[in-house]
Amino acid sequence: GYGLSKIAHHLESEQILSPSAYFGRFREGSAAAVNPYHWSPQTIANILSKPEYCGDTVNFRTEKPSYKSKRILKHDPKDYKIFRNTQDAIIDRDVFERAQEKLAQRKRVPAIKEKPLYSGYLICHDCGCRMYLTRTRTGTNPHYVCGGYRKAIRICTAHYIREESLTEQVLSEIRSIVEDYKKNPKAFTKKIQNKFQSECSVNEKKAEKRLSEIMERLAEIEMFIQKLYEDKVKGNISQEVFANLTKKYTDEKTGLFAEREMLKCGENEKKQFVKKFNQFVAAVESIGSIVEVTPDLLRGLIDKIEVYEGVKEEGKRREPAKIKVYFIGIGDLS
After folding, report:
1. CA-to-CA distance for 334 and 330, rounded, in angstroms?
2. What's phi and psi for 32, nearest 5 deg?
3. Quick count: other Cβ atoms within 10 Å of Cβ 39?
4. Alpha carbons within 13 A on the beta-carbon side of 78
5. What are residue 209's DSSP bridge partners?
6. Is 324 strand, coil or helix?
7. Residue 316 — pLDDT band, cuts 50, 70, 90?
């Protein structure tokens, strides 16, 4: 009688390895790498729908258009070729059939046809993952949750925030900034320029220190490589050790050169600031009275929105999640 999510939670609580963890097939940073006992409802659904468990063999699930191609095309289930009773069953066929009936009865959340209003803007403050829109089965009560929490790829909390509450906070932040600008454009512009210059001076000092460290390390690496050549010529080290160490130092040099070039891009940062700030000003001056949040409004003004977890007491949320808005060309003014 358990649903897919409840089965997944049960397997996790029993510390049963997920298939990807069991076979050691997972990417670094994936859910299986972070928590090898994490089961997703989709994994459960896939297992429950496989006839192999009741003794059948299924062919032609997928095909490649060519042996040269890496693409894999999935066939429609009606095109599968199923050979019954080819191996010992580990599940009774009547149990399997009942499971298929239950799966067919699953209620699905209606697909969201329109792109969520805040898609691409919301970031979890605590783990840095994007946040995703979720609805109830009836399609009501739209709210956002942390992707790291939802997909179990980060140890995080839900950071649950209703779309309605989010819109109220975003409108309040936008109105406040727009009013500040329209009240005194020159003073507002001066304040932003001072903020940017202050941040730049701090970043420049950090960049100068890091550049100095990089140059010292590059000089050390050149010395080490020269010593390796001398040791190889003298026969002090084998060809294998020489090749491995040379590759290691060469790779480090490449990374340091790339970082050095990035640190020298201070002028580009200033040009980007001017461009983005001009975009912000143009958007603000074109705005009349702000009555709703629209995609155009977000594109013109907002860079990203960080969502903080609400305060909880005894498992219940006492305060809703709060946000911090980063404006294009401005950043955070709170």
Report:
1. 11
2. -70, -30
3. 25
4. 0
5. none
6. strand
7. low
C-alpha span between 51 and 61 (Å, rounded) = 12
* High-pLDDT (> 70) share of the chain, %: 87
Task: Give long-range contacts, CB 8 A cutoff, 24+ apart: 80-88.
Answer: 82/51, 82/56, 82/57, 82/58, 83/56, 83/57, 83/58, 83/59, 84/55, 84/56, 85/55, 85/56, 86/55, 86/56, 86/57, 87/52, 87/55, 87/57, 88/55
pLDDT in tens, 92-130: 988 898 888 888 776 555 555 667 889 889 999 988 889
Rounded CA Rg of the chain: 28
The Cα–Cα gap between 129 and 157 comes to: 11
Q: Per the structure block, which two tokens stand in for 68?
A: 């040269």
Q: Is the dihedral of CA 278, 283, 289, 293 positive or negative?
A: negative
CA dihedral 245, 248, 254, 257 (to 10 degrees): -80
Q: How high is the mean pLDDT of the chain?
A: 82
Which residues make Cβ contacts (< 8 Å) with residue 249, sequence separation at least 6?
221, 224, 225, 228
Q: Which residue has the tokens 């297992």?
A: 47
CA distance 296 to 281: 14
Half-sphere exposure of 2 (CA within 13 A, CB side): 12
Compute the distance between CA of residue 303 and CA of residue 330 in angstroms, rounded to an integer.
9
Residue count (the chain):
334
Distance CA 10, CA 6 (A): 6
Give the integer Cα–Cα distance in Å for 307 and 289: 26
Query: What 3-state class would DSSP assign to 295?
Result: helix
Among the listed ranges 29-33, 78-82, 133-137, 181-185, which one has the minimum average pLDDT value?
29-33
Closest by alpha carbon to 49, among 60, 36, 58? 58
Q: Can you tell me the distance from the alpha carbon of 284 to that of 291, in angstroms, rounded to the nearest whole number?
A: 14
